[in-house]
Amino acid sequence: MKAACVRTQGPASNIRLEEWPTPQPGQGEVLVRVTWSALNPIDVYLRAGTIPMPVPSPFIPGSDFAGVVEAVGPGVTRFKPGDRVWGSNQGLLGRQGTLAEYVCTHEQWVYPVTPGVDESLLAASALTGITAHLAVFDAGQLRKGQRLFVTGGTGGVGSFVVQMGRIAGAEVITTAGSPEKIAHCKAMGASHVINHRTENLKEKLAELVAQKPLDVWIETQREPDFDCMVSSLAPGGRMVLIAGRTARPVFPVGPFYVKGLTLTGFAMFNSPAERQRHAAHEVGQWLAEGKLKVTIGATYPLEKAAEAHAFLEENTLGMAGKLTGKVVVKVS
Ligand SMILES: NC(=O)c1ccc[n+]([C@@H]2O[C@H](COP(=O)([O-])OP(=O)(O)OC[C@H]3O[C@@H](n4cnc5c(N)ncnc54)[C@H](OP(=O)(O)O)[C@@H]3O)[C@@H](O)[C@H]2O)c1
């Protein structure tokens, strides 16, 4: 099979297209012919070697996929050859990834394609859609009528958080970096959008929450401002962290406990498979019903996987602001 592979962790140019043996499914595993893959920031960190998670050597990056089941190993009960499927959780925790014509994975990480939903959109929704669902409904425990704030409303996770907030019946406040992105956030259901490039977030948010403070804050940036978060939340409010491995911010302990706030965080790939399956099911249903939309910002062929990685890195780490939506890769 053709695979985009990394022999030495480092810059995107280290990704090379190679010929690999097609993997064979073991106990409980499904072999999927990958049609679409999608990129996420963690693929960049793992390819670059900037987070302490061991990868196989050589390594095929890529978490998300959509495709068709080619073969199943012993003990597989949910799938058979020919089934159209999608999923995430690949290319991490020592597993090979999805920037290859085939991926072999345990059936617990595989979901049936929701009828009527384009496979490229499911691949584009996998890691970010499941993460947003876990953040909004599990960690955030968002309820109807509440006020939710999320940073980066057009980002991979942020755009789903905005829409799931709307689906939950909450009021959503978010940030974006251009007038076009602000309009996009409003079209997705945000009631207020702060321009993080031209406005002072702290001041603007203080005005917005003066009458009605926030109930849930979902932070997608790597440097959380806890003074701003704690002062913007109502008593009993919840803060959810999903980014910022190296951040060591100042924390306002007194106001935090006096208000009875909760701070929680999670990594999607450590969440139980059952919980992720439930999230994936709802994401698929909401995409089919048109309640949820995913924007594809750039599409690359497998042969240009290195360019795709460089483009994501420029935007997600370099904050170039040239990307609205997901970067997807057409594999086969
Ligand atoms: N814990 C987990 O399980 C988990 C899962 C998924 C992702 N993550 C992490 O979550 C983070 C976001 O992931 P993603 O896929 O959503 O990334 P993304 O698609 O690259 O989105 C990044 C967002 O950040 C916004 N942004 C940039 N600078 C900003 C600033 N100064 N203030 C406010 N917003 C700013 C961008 O907005 P503009 O383009 O409008 O400037 C963009 O919307 C990453 O660090 C990722 O590693 C964690």
Description:
The chain has 332 residues and is α/β, with parallel strands linked by helices. The protein is built from 9 helices and 15 strands. β1 (2-6) and β2 (15-19) form a beta hairpin. The protein is globular, with a radius of gyration of 20 Å. The termini are close together. 48% of the residues are buried. The mean pLDDT is 97. NADP nicotinamide-adenine-dinucleotide phosphate is lined by residues 40-42, 127-128, 131, 151-152, 154-158, 175-177, 181, 196, 220-222, 242-243, 267-268, 315-316, 319, 321.
Q: Biggest β-sheet: count, sense, barrel?
A: 7 strands, mixed
Q: What is the 3D shape?
A: globular
Ions, cofactors and other ligands present here are:
NADP nicotinamide-adenine-dinucleotide phosphate
Radius of gyration from the CA trace? 20 Å
Stated plainly, the CATH topology of the largest domain is called Quinone Oxidoreductase, Chain A, domain 1
* CATH level 1 name of the largest domain: Alpha Beta
Q: Kindly state the number of beta strands.
A: 15
Number of helices: 9
> What series of H and E elements makes up the topology?
EEEHEEEEHEHEHEHEHEHEHEHE
What portion of residues is helical? 25-40%
The averaged pLDDT comes out at 97
Number of domains: 2
**What's the CATH H-level superfamily name of the largest domain?**
Medium-chain alcohol dehydrogenases, catalytic domain
| Terminal-residue CA separation | 11 Å
Structural class: alpha/beta
